[in-house]
Amino acid sequence: MNHRDEAAAALSRRDWPAVETACRAALAEDPTTAWALMLMAELASARGRHDLVLALLGEIRRHDPAYGEALARRAVATHLQGRQRDALPLYRAALVFDPANGVLWSNCGAAAQAAGLLGPALGAYRRATRADPMNADGWANCGALANELGHHREGVAALDRAVTLDPDRLGLRYSRLIAALPVVYEDDEAVAHARADYDRALGALERSVEIADARQLVELAEAVDLATPFLLAYQGEDDIALQTRLGDVIARAMAARRPDAGHDLAAWDGQEKIRIGFVTNCFKWHSVWKIPLRGWFAGLDRRRFAVHGYHLGADRDAITAEAAGMATKFVAGPKRFDDWVAAIRADRPHVLVYPEIGMDPTALRLAALRLAPVQATTYGHPTTPGLPTIDVNLSCELMEPANGARQYREDLVRLPGIGLSYAPPAIVPAAVTRAQIGLAEGVPAFWCCQMLAKYLPRHDELFPLIARAAGPCRFVFVSYPRGHAVTATFYSRLERAFAAHGLNAADYCLILPPQTPERFHGVAALCDVFLDAHGWSGCNTVMESLQAGLPVVTWPGATMRSRHAAGILARMGITETIAADRDDYVALAAGLAHDPARRAALGARMRAAAALAYDDPAVLPALADALVARLS
User: I need a labelling partner for 81 at 20 to 30 A (CA). Which of 210, 346, 464, 581 fits?
Assistant: First the structure.
């Protein structure tokens, strides 16, 4: 056996010392042996010896310039196998040979992004645009990720450049539309500017769609797989007009992509079990599984319904197995889009329910097709999806405003109460102390645990107003998990808001790193008051706080998504912490801060009434009747 075969055999059994021995033996015979130098570079990379990696790759390049092309091919092949982390060092090695190759830099960025290494991914995309400034895809990749990481201006500028380079690509115009939505805003003016920018970009996309040919529409349909307008709802407005316009665009593109959809749908004969499919990537540990999916999926009467689950995601956990055990039939991904269409159509569903439309691109694309006679969504993502293919929005009485129906393109169904059949998650809170997270004993702490996108600049003043009324206190936030730029923007807003009232934000605001579920609940137990976000209220977080008996102060607004906490409290009959207006919100929060006896009494009442929120026996029969009524 020669040295190369010895190294290959050692690699197959992951015997790294034997790999190194074979490489050294080969190099002793010929110091220019490229394969041995490459393996030694990979071993050095695994050990963190980046200086040695570069030296070894330099040796390869000096002796065998063609080896870089082979490395690039190997990197692409590894990437296409789904082994993104394994592909990364190969891309980096290939780039030593060809540092001006924009395609390699883009591929390297895509591999890093798929592996969750978002900072390095953005760096690679930036290098791609410098290496090949005329490549529209390079600018599009850079812009989309820059915006996701909180570099909004860079993201918009990069997507503008992409559209300029290739104006006939509708997918680039769609990506530019999505880039109009930052994660957080610097001030109120930025919110208005972003909404106007989104409206302009949507208009440009609409005009392009009107004159597009079938090929362009199919390209747009594929681009929808990259992103959704998820962040639009965080602006706190009534989005029906914008969502309806975009819904028509997406439905038209998807109709071009699958013109056969909508043919030969199953008709319910009134006697057989209703075949109902739930289509989502949230058959896993996820807020949408907890609310509302699990209770409906488990609880629908199997005498009337055959319940199918279509798990669109690649991630699987104990929840996935639990859901599969509940289902009449369960299909799990990953699958190609056309395979999902085929799998759903083969089951001939009478009803399809999309628990959320707007978070997962595959769910959005499928929902834009007519695959069942009745198609519904609900408040996993609580806004209208605006699609002409969705017939019903399954909401609830206690969270909808009186004029709620006007905010939906689809028919609104108000299920009883809060519309849930809920099982509290079995989470054992981590043993966290106040000292460990930087909270002083005896200082009242407000739990402000919502995603930072929920906090709009126009509500920043609430925090210093509460602080002035309450005295020494702390507001405990959780940082944005994808890079530091979003959290930094949010904190700079807090600094300005507190300074405007003569206060120092650092004395009152604590922003924790992203928390595991166990630590999240452990920190919640250390706090004194759940302080709800005004524009987009907590739902899962409020339900989970009931176990800790954490009093909830909320101020409902004009949309369903701003009224989650108010609906939950109303269901339990605890309405005295539902504020009527801004001043009431501030007074309620400040009053609870230094009234431990009242907090304890409210907490005891919440724990005692939690069962009312968890389960309403009227919900599942009402859900079943609503679906049957649509089929009849």
Answer: 346
